[in-house]
Amino acid sequence: MKAFLRQYGAYLAFGVALIATLGSLYYSDVMGFIPCKLCWYQRILMYPLVIISLVGIFLRDEYLPNYVLPLSISGILLSSYHYMIQMGILPEPVSCADIVPCGSRYVNYLGFITIPFMALTAFILITIIMSAVKWYAAADEAYEEEELEEAAAIA
């Protein structure tokens, strides 16, 4: 699993971000659902992840998790907040009383899967994938340093 994530983690994160982006565009442009204010903020965090991860793949940037994780973790916080508003756990803020209230639900699959829940799931997956990539890279660096120290001690 370690080698797989080191090699394909960026591709997986890219795929999740792309599917989430295309899904949000489908709901707004094809289905005609008007995004609320919090949905727009979630899009602001998700859409760049497609481009950032794609550039990271092409450049084989080992620091890609450092660019992706701040956006994905912020997305987790925002999507969680939005989902709690939709579920009635938190009150809807006054700023969400524009054209589309943030507590409205366009979709409600299985009684709990809403658009913010889908965004939350995507942000969580991206965060897990990129965290694992970062953690495995750090573990590999530590192992290589240890091998070099042992080789130097032997010589």
What does the model show?
By secondary structure, this protein is mainly α. It has one domain: DsbB-like (Bromodomain-like, Up-down Bundle), CATH 1.20.1550. The chain is 74% helix and 0% strand. The protein has helices at 2-30, 37-59, 64-86, 115-154. The radius of gyration is 19 Å and the shape is elongated. The protein starts with a helix and ends with a helix. The mean pLDDT is 87.
The run of helices and strands is HHHH
Query: For this structure, what is the CATH class?
Result: Mainly Alpha
Based on the structure given, which CATH architecture is correct? Up-down Bundle
Q: How large a portion of the residues is in β-strands, by DSSP E? A: under 5%
Number of strands: 0
CATH fold group: Bromodomain-like
- Give the count of structural domains: 1
Q: Mind describing the biggest β-sheet?
A: none
Instruction: Note the gap between the termini.
Output: 34 Å
CATH-wise, what's the superfamily? DsbB-like
Low-confidence stretches: none
Return the average pLDDT rounded to an integer. Answer: 87
Structural class: mainly alpha
Fraction of residues in H or I helices? over 70%
Return Rg in Å.
19 Å
Shape: elongated
Helical stretch count? Answer: 4
Keywords for this entry:
mainly alpha; elongated
Briefly characterize the structure.
By secondary structure, the chain is mainly α.
